[in-house]
Amino acid sequence: MLFKNITVLNDNFEIEKGRFVLVKDGRIASIEDASPEDYSGEVYDGKGKLLMPGFYNAHAHSPMTLMRGYGENMALQDWLNKRIFPFEDKLSSPSVYWGTLLAMAESIRFGIVSSSDMYYFIDDMVRAVADSGAKANISRAISNFDNNDVWNLPSVQEMQRTYEAYHNTEDERIKMDMSIHAEYTSNETGVRAVADYAREKQANMHVHVSETRLEHEECKARHGGMTPVQYFNSLGAFDTRTTAAHCVWVEGEDFDILKEKGVTVASNPVSNLKLASGVCNVPELLRREIRVAIGTDSVASNNSLNFFEEMKMFAIASKMYYQDPTAVTPVETLRAATVNGALSQGRGDCGRISEGCRADLIVVDIDQPNMQPVHNMANNLVYSASGSDIVLTMVDGRVLYRDGEYMTIDIEKTMFEVQKETDAILHAL
């Protein structure tokens, strides 16, 4: 496909007008001021449109679409124990497949090209992502509470089996990560075992860290004053590329460890605010040059995958909480949403509009009232744009969504099956 005469958001998050961007064999082949000679393929008229990198959702639980709106106005631990965990006990392969597929449809609609997903029923999640044409880093969340042989746990066996079966499949659209659910759902034996396996395989790690003050302080009480960051670091969990989700209550030495180990913090502003967990100290993370990406968490706690909404909250929450209107800039926000998320997933050839990069692209309709006038396009994208302004989503050069139409997903069937699975679970509770 050739994007003709289109406005481009370049690597420096600056605007280039009137560009011709050629996508060939899944990658960005050229970016020019004029049409390539002898091109005879599909041409996309870019008048009134902006081409930018797709979004990389750095922390998600996609099958939880079935629980959207199910537990509201509750503290995190009550929400988990009284609503979410009982519902999850009734999940099945079909419910996870359809729930994941619905999440992929919503993600594609809102410009998310890849998600870092932590859950279970991994085979069904992989199948749904593969069917959708999207990308994902999928990890089997590991929890353990005793000191028996970790390798006998069904969850750990699933982790091993699915890593060997699916890592870098679908032309590397599917990557398998390792995951320790959290400090409070594991012990040292389990953390060491998963960390060692991740290091052996050179796989990514994905873990919840310091989401709530209670989690953070109880960890310190259990482990001689060690915070979750210090605890995981002492057990080798950060000795491979790691994404630490939330990090709302990190403190002191935590920042030094995150920087030294090259950990990416996945901030989840909407979920954290909705559950009253707090506001991640993004300004301090950025000051320390710690990589920050953006996650949605699940739609059970968000309640959407509208990434423009997530970016706006990411940018303004720190301004309010730390009483500094300069705290997080639109460019820092766009970087967190795109290239930083791609890097957190180990996708170094993604997240940028550069020749040779994979064509994970979205088109935004900027010829809309909410996007005019344009004093600074980065400002408009973060503070003014809406998810509905996205008119095309492309992954590896393949169009997955265009002008209201899904190219890979039967959206009516998917919504029907999700409702059917949800009703069956509710009936069984």
Radius of gyration: 21 Å
Question: Helical proportion?
Answer: 25-40%
Which regions contain 5 or more consecutive residues with pLDDT less than 50? none
Q: Please give the count of helices.
A: 16
Shape assignment: globular
Q: What distance lies between the first and last C-alpha atoms, to the nearest angstrom?
A: 49 Å
How many beta strands in the DSSP annotation? 17
Mean pLDDT, to the nearest integer, reads 97
- Bin the strand percentage: 15-25%
| Largest sheet data | 9 strands, mixed
From the helix content, strand content and strand pairing, which structural class follows?
A: alpha/beta
Short description:
The protein is α/β, with parallel strands linked by helices and 429 residues long.
Helix-strand layout with pairing:
Layout: E1 2-9, E2 15-24, E3 27-32, E4 43-45, E5 49-53, E6 55-60, H1 76-88, H2 93-109, E7 112-119, H3 122-132, E8 135-142, H4 154-166, H5 169-172, E9 174-180, H6 188-201, E10 205-209, H7 213-222, H8 228-234, E11 242-246, H9 253-261, E12 264-267, H10 269-274, H11 282-287, E13 292-294, H12 307-321, H13 330-337, H14 339-344, E14 361-365, H15 377-383, E15 390-395, E16 398-402, E17 405-406, H16 411-428
Parallel strand pairs: 1-4, 1-5, 6-7, 7-8, 8-9, 9-10, 10-11, 11-12, 12-13
Antiparallel strand pairs: 1-2, 2-3, 5-14, 14-15, 15-16, 16-17
Helix pairs in contact: 2-3, 2-16, 12-13, 13-15
